[in-house]
Amino acid sequence: DDGLNTRAIAAGKQYFGSATDNGELSDVTYKAILDNTAEFGQITPGNSMKWDTIEPSQNSFSFTKGDVIADLAATNGQKLRCHTLVWYSQLPNWVKTGGFNNETLISVMKNHITQTVTHYKGKCLHWDVVNEALNEDGTYRSNVFYDTIGEAYIPIAFATAAAADPSAKLYYNDYNIETAGSKSTGAQRIIKLVQQYGTKIDGIGMQAHLIVGSSPSTSSWTTNMNAFSALNVDIAITELDIRTTTPATAAAVTQQSKDYANAVAGCKAVTKCVGVTIWDFTDKYSWIPSVFSGQGAALPWDEDLVKKDEVYNAILNAW
Ligand code: XIL
C-alpha cells in the first residue's frame, strides 16, 4: 500500500515514523492509523523511556511503560527509536539534588544507561544517548551532568551505551541544529569529542520542532546535513513538527506543506539521512499547544484524526 513509510523506503530510506505515547494507545481510531506500516515504519516513545519514568528513585527501575511501546513496535513490525538516556529535563530530583560528586554521578549515570540499554538490548534501532546538551550559541548547557562531570559526561555516556548494546545505533539529539550555525557547529564538536575519546557515535538526531514560514529550505537542510555526513555519522530527523498560530489560516497550511516537503526533500537528497520521524502524527496528541501558548496545528492529521490532504500529500510527494 502507498503511504509515507512506503514512499520513504522507495526513496532508499529506512523508515518514516511517528512518536506515540502510552495513553493514546487506547484510542482505537488513533491506534489503527499508527499501526499502519504503509504510513509508519518506525515509532518513538514520547515519554516512557525517559529517566523519570524508568528510574524514578535511585536503582529502582520501571520498564513497564517503555515495554508497551517496544512490544507494539515488535508486534507491528515497526522499527523503534529509543529516547532518551541522558537529558537535563524529565530528570528526577534525586539525580539533580542528590549531592553527587564527579565520581558518584558518573556511577549513577552509567548505572542508568547500563540497566536501561541492557533491558532493551536488541530492540532499539537507535538510542538517543544524550539529548539537548547545547545552548543556542553552541556552548554546553549547564545541567547537573555538565556541572559535575564536565564535557566528559558525553563520551562516557556513549561508551557505556555501546558496551550495553553494541548493535544499537547511538545518537546525539538536539533542536535548532537543522541549519548551519553556532548550535549545529556545537553538535559537530560533540561528535568529534566522542570520536576523539575513542568510542562510537553513529548519528545526529535533528529534532526539527519548526515554525511555519521560518523553516529551512531544502538546500539549507542539505548543506547542514552534509556537514554531519563529512564526520561520518548518520542523520535522522527525529521529532519533526511545524507549528503555527491557531486556528491555522489556509495560507499557513500551504506554507506548512512546503516546509514539510523541504524537510523530506532534504533527507531524501542526503545519502546518510536514514529517516524522518514526526512528533506524533495528529494534533489531537501534539505536545505543542501545552508548551507554546496559542500555537499548534503542527501535524499532518487534525484533532479529529482526519488527514489534512494538503500537508499529507506534500510529505508523500516529497519522497
Ligand atoms: C516532550 C513530550 O512530547 C511531552 O509529552 C512532554 O511533556 C515533554 O517532552 N524534545 C524532546 C522530547 O527531546 O523528548 C520532548 O517531548 C519535546 C522536545
UniProtKB/TrEMBL annotation:
Main subcellular location: secreted
GO CC terms of this entry: extracellular region
Keyword DNA damage: no
Residue stretches making up the GH10 domain: 5-318
Pathway annotation: Glycan degradation; xylan degradation
Enzyme class: hydrolase
Enzyme Commission designation: 3.2.1.8
A biological process term (GO) from this entry: xylan catabolic process
Catalytic function, reaction form: Endohydrolysis of (1->4)-beta-D-xylosidic linkages in xylans
Location in the cell: Secreted
UniProt entry keywords in alphabetical sequence: Carbohydrate metabolism, Glycosidase, Hydrolase, Polysaccharide degradation, Secreted, Signal, Xylan degradation
GO function terms (MF aspect): cellulose binding; endo-1,4-beta-xylanase activity
UniProt family annotation: Belongs to the glycosyl hydrolase 10 (cellulase F) family.
Protein name: Beta-xylanase
Lineage summary: Eukaryota, Fungi, Dikarya, Ascomycota, Pezizomycotina
Parent-protein residues present: 25 to 343 of 411
